[in-house]
Amino acid sequence: MSDHVHDESCNHDHDHEDDIFIVTDKDGVEHEMVMVYTFEAGEQPYAVLLDRNDPEADGVIFRIEEEDDEAFLASIEDEEEWDRVVQIYNQIVEEQEAE
Length: 99
What we know:
Low-confidence stretches: 1-16
Helix content: 10-25%
Oligomer: single chain
InterPro entries: UPF0473 (IPR009711)
Pfam family, one: DUF1292
Radius of gyration: 14 Å
Order of helices and strands: EEEEEH
């Protein structure tokens, strides 16, 4: 994952508000999450989100689903899928760090 911080001091052009999602955790607490990275595992796209107010927290991976030309984020409930996706993501991170 990139070390780039997407905040008001960011010095390149893109609309940060398009990358903000409100995610409710298992305790019912809402978090403002920023999409910082997308990747594919097989043909399925995934997104890595970070808590906008806690950049030191671990990222969360969601599956990107499409329905009626609308994209939305879905939790990964299947343990096998989760293990596979995390392994692919870790491999991507290792390759980027090696560059």
